[in-house]
Amino acid sequence: MRITCPICGDRDRREFYVKGAALARPEASATLEDWHEHVNLRDNRAGETKELWYHEMGCSAWIEVCRNTVSHEIVSTRLAATADLGAKR
Amino acid sequence: MRFSGWRVLKEGLTGNKGWAPHWRDPEPQPEYDVVIIGGGGHGLATAYNLAKEHGITNVAVLEKGYLGGGNVGRNTTIVRANYYLPGNSEFYSHSLKQWEGLEEELNYNVMMSQRGQIMVYHNDGQRDAMVRRGNAIINQGDDAELLSREALRKLVPILNYDNARFPIMGGLLQRRAGTARHDAVAWGFARGADQRGVDLIQNCEVTGIDVENGKVRGVQTSRGVIRAKKVALAAAGRSGQVAAMAGLRLPIESHVLQAFVSEGIKPVLDHVVSFAEGHLYVSQSDKGGLVFGSYLDFYSSYAARGNLPMVEHTMETCVSMVPALAKAKVLRSWGGIMDMTPDGSPIIDHSGIEGLYLNCGWCYGGFKAIPGSGNAYAHLIATDRPHGAATKFKLDRFRSGQGLMDEEGTGAQHNLH
Amino acid sequence: MRVAGKGLLQGAKPVTFSFNGRHMMGLEGDTLASALLANGVHLVGRSFKYHRPRGILTAGSEEPNALVTVGSGAQQDPNVRATQQEIFEGLEARSQNCWPSVEHDVQAVNDLAAPFFGAGFYYKTFMWPSAFWEKIYEPIIRKAAGLGALSGQPDPDISEKAYAFCDLLVIGSGPAGLMAALVAGRAGADVILAEEDASMGGRLLSEVEQIDGLPGVDWVAQVLAELGDMDNVRLMPRTAVTGAYDQGTYGALERVAHHHPRRAGLPRECFWRIVAKRAVLAAGAIERPIAFANNDRPGIMTASAVRSYLNRWGVAPGLRVTLFANNDQAHHTARDLVQAGMHVAMVVDSRHDAPDSDLFPVMKGAQVCNTGGRKRIDSITVRSVAGEERIQTDCLAMSGGWNPTLHLTCHLNGRPQWNRDIASFVPTPGTVPGLACAGACNGEFSTAGALREGVEVAGQALQELGLKVVDAALPQAGDDAYNMTAIWAVPGKGRAWLDFQNDVTVKDVKQAATENFRSVEHMKRYTTQGMATDQGKNSNVAALAVLADATGRGIPETGTTTFRPPFVPVSMAAMGAGAAGMGFKPQRFLTSHLASKELGAEQIEVGLWYRASYFPEGDESNWRQSCDREIGLVRDHVGVCDVSTLGKIDIQGPDAAKLLDFVYSNTFSTLKVGKVRYGLMLREDGFVMDDGTTARMGEHHYVMTTTTAAAGQVMAHLEFVRQALRPEWDVQITSVTEQWAQFAVAGPKSRELLNGILSEKIDNDSWPFMGCGTVDVMGVQGRLFRISFSGEMAYELAVPARYGDALFRELVSRAKTLDGGAYGMEALNVLRIEKGFLTHAELNGTVTAFDLGLQGMVSKKKDCIGKPMSARPGLMAEDRQRLVGLKPIGAVKQLTSGAHLFNPDDPVERIYDQGYVTSVGFSPALGHMIGLAFLKSGPDRIGDTVRLVDHLRGIDALCEVVDPVFFDPEGTRARG
């Protein structure tokens, strides 16, 4: 399996740590129910899904990867910094 | 037909002409008291228990492929009751007791073999964690023994005691743990359920769950609409998607866990052995193949296949810990789809929709749970009260934080198990 | 028997080898199988279940019968295919799964009991009495099971792993593969041509045919010479591509040294990870046997294997050969034998319209329905409209047609398609992204067709790679018709084998169907069909056809089982290469490692690190003596300990303080420059992730320490927060764990020691408790932190790692002049337990700040990671197991980690469990053991008595619940 790092290019999966679903963090004022949804509940889609990978053994970039969980095709990748995952403050 | 040595003898002498189907292939009826979605180990065991323990026989098990085609047919066949957190502890203890009488119960040789399972530790910290676990097991009423390095060496001489990167210090032994013939477990429960009148319906994919006014009415399937008073989910690997048909979102991610079997070799390993470093677990089947595995691949997947990094990690651990196995050749690898919950422990509970029940989130522990799960889930479906051994497998624990069962201590959030 | 003038080994060097202790001669280039046949040996092995005598069925890696054990002692290698093992001087091979010998195998008695050993018999018996399974039945079954034996000793051989990258990976070197490689190579693409066999050429090495007017083998040599001259082409013989994985990654096993005597330093095998932009599968096809009664005797082979032995190795597998076939191509076997001067007794063809021949007799519309002979075939019984006829023969070649070797196309869950014309499964295009199929594996069985498809797929791949085809001239070759009419199983009595090794017969499959194991997966699992070492390569399609017939369905509706990696079995040694012994994981050594070893320190593993456990001195004979002494050094004088394994993270930038406030539960923006603060970090689920101290070195500069275990995790977490959650903040994070060597200098004389090496002397005012800053250490710029993990006045002194060794030696030698010295992990652990400080024994992933009594550290004034979820009711419940100290108060003075706690009057059962012990140690200061534990409602129970029970170690002790800080609770010593 190979992941395309937006900075380093096509690299072996061994260089990466995978964190799971790419989800925007709720605001500080969010309810416990919102937090339960964020931390625990998952769409867990069979198909294209966005997730976070960390190029740990490479450039240290956190990457949002759009990947198909059935075929393992990598559809697209971009830096997590551009994915707007932080809550509005 | 009752199975026995005599029967095998008699059939052998008369040309094996008397054997009959182990189960029927009925057409689905328009309505059932209970419809179980998923004809794997848990679904079949649940159907069996509904019929046997609760007299509920107007039951259908709907399977989109063939019976036992999911994780019950693609695992490393390990059975144990060595959990240490309340909830898991009593449940797996209960399940192991069920395993111990399963052949007689089902009149099917599932080859439950209590060959003993050993968790090897490599340092003081791991030893202390295993002692905590072992004491919890004994407090629960099950068996555990702490083995010194010397005692372990005597029991399992082929491990790497002399030049391992992570030295082998000893192990925690559970003698009543072991392995079983995985397919036979599914078939045995299927046959038992069928004999008690349950309809096992293969090639029947559920495409929708009908809910009206907060109450379940039945299911849509590839073979038509089936009405049901109660619908019970037992679709490991696809739990999230099946639940979504009823508008539910579950605390589950699907991950792939690979497993491996080697070519048949003469017996070298009697016990099931697992290692705290590298997370290898290995046993040898009655056919002679080494059956082994390690971690998840760690990315979510529905592909039921994995990639080389974890394949190689598994082999590396084996070569390091059991160098005498290095010349064994890997014959086949496969992947199972694991319902991973945030804390690594399962859910047997009401869904929040009347008449719809959840049995999911078994992570990589589902096989050993089958008899206990069937028992507990049937109890919940039949009585609407949790079985005494499964009171803590609640869906709500993730919301409340109450009674989380994080056996590995890696976290009560996704992707850490 | 070797045939004069035949084969490619003419003039080859003679080689001596032994089989079952008998010395024999072969030729260089022989496989063990061809050499055995040349020596007239047909009985090679025994089957798995019935111990039937077995010979050689095939000439390739798919061989199910002729599995042998090679070598002896620790190097013994079981389950080696005789059809693949090349002979070399001194090769020792022997039959396996037979006793006392392959000729006389006691367990052959199983064959007589075959009626009772039908499909799935074991699911129906061995159940009574239940205790007998483990004690009697299973041990007998286990003893009988298995094929060859491992030596039981550690593998003394080495293997390797390697990576390779290419534009085009060509798998298989028959006509299709060679053409693909040639076209791509000429176009300048980086090509890897991988061939499982020792020699490239595929079937061309075994067939009598012409390409471009040249004998096939000469054309192969010409192409290989051209490829060999290209720098952009790598030829990899003896390399089986074993698996297709995601994004163009392939696994491949190279047999580096199986074909010659052992040479020091040479790996036996190399496991390759090949990353290919495009791939061509040109793996050929496997000829399928036909099921008829007693079709498993030695001397019965596939027709193509007979041609291979004759045309490639110059060996005739029999003197009076018969052929049973259903296709025209198989007749080449008879033709080649006759042309080589051999006798063909009869060609039996199931087709009524089979072609006639001038060279050999043909019975059309006939079937072989039985065979005779025990350890080698001696006759066949042929059934035709004319009745049954017995024909003497010593070798039966059979061909039921061919199955494309499409396995790799299924490795990513692709399913093949049924092609009615050739009655075979063929690959479904696109099932492995970037991989295209050509030649026989694509269902194109003629040589001309294979050459053409090879050119086509290479051209397509080149176009996708953006390269131009330079020369794609198509050689001329034969286009023989295949003309196959399927026949799977000959009706009749007697057992007709499908899966030879696992002894699965047509009857077994039919019985499975009768018992409603009608799904192909059910049939496979119930009968073990296709689960032998050949993974059903020889038998799956025929078994499927039998099942389809038994269930009244067509083959495509019946389906296929899934092909999974590896394509051929791969040793763990190869895929796990490099991991033996110390190679399993990197070893991380501290800069003080050498000095510690010189001091005689015992080393222990801490994650990947090695740390000094204790430093024995004088006549100390166990760790406790050293540990107690080292504790005394710290409490009374001064101790030195290397703490560099703790993670060190340098955090700089205008928003550094914001970041720390966000990742720590407590506040760091208020920390003054030159000060250190203890911090608690939560996971988003609200549980504690890690703790540590962070020093503010400057307005925009912090240095964070993490626990040793969590260093990597915390680093990833900080980067996640910075990049994914707060990309707008201006802050940079760098791991500097390895850049700094850091030593704890602890004890009442620590300042005195330091003042001997610091250019500017320090005192309690200039460097107060929790102070930090840069210092000059004997001319080197370092950092000094006034922090204490022991409760004593203590400092941590950090210098660039290259000075670590020198500084450690200097510190220890100066400590000794002050009656102090080095201390190790054991002493460090007791010192911190005395103070109630935490390690990962307590921070075990399942505890909350509340459990640790640190709920006050979760700031109410700000948001932080984990704060919302830490407020869940379940995480704040009073009766959670919470941190306390324990001291023994009964007769038993021993405390142990991992023991559980109970109320003294309760039964020792799970439901009464009150908690567990995390850490224990003997406190020399207090004169008794102390422990840290998590106890239900712990802090509310100070002064209570609990019962500590450790069944595993036989400890049952009464303890008093005390505050977790045992020593100097006011903390005056650290501040002094």
From TrEMBL, chain A:
It comes from the Bacteria. This is Sarcosine oxidase subunit delta. The lineage of its organism: Bacteria, Pseudomonadati, Pseudomonadota, Alphaproteobacteria, Rhodobacterales.
From TrEMBL, chain B:
PROSITE patterns: RHODANESE_3. GO terms for biological process: tetrahydrofolate metabolic process. It is found in: Cytoplasm. It comes from the Bacteria. It catalyses: sarcosine + O2 + H2O = formaldehyde + glycine + H2O2; sarcosine + (6S)-5,6,7,8-tetrahydrofolate + O2 = (6R)-5,10-methylene-5,6,7,8-tetrahydrofolate + glycine + H2O2. Its cofactor is FAD; FMN. Keywords: Cytoplasm, FAD, Flavoprotein, FMN, Nucleotide-binding, Oxidoreductase. One of its GO terms (molecular function) is nucleotide binding. Belongs to the SoxB family. This is Sarcosine oxidase subunit beta. It comes from Parasedimentitalea maritima.
UniProtKB/TrEMBL annotation, chain C:
This is Sarcosine oxidase subunit alpha family protein. NCBIfam families: soxA. Keywords: Oxidoreductase. InterPro entries: 2Fe-2S-bd_N, BFD-like_2Fe2S-bd_dom_sf, FAD/NAD-bd_sf, GcvT/YgfZ/DmdA, GcvT/YgfZ_C, GcvT_C, GCVT_N, Sarcosine_oxidase_asu. Belongs to the GcvT family. Residues 882-968 form the Aminomethyltransferase C-terminal domain. Residues 595-862 form the GCVT N-terminal domain. Pfam families: FAD_oxidored, Fer2_4, GCV_T, GCV_T_C, SO_alpha_A3. SUPFAM superfamilies: Aminomethyltransferase beta-barrel domain (SSF101790), FAD/NAD(P)-binding domain (SSF51905), Folate-binding domain (SSF103025). Residues 493-578 form the SoxA A3 domain.
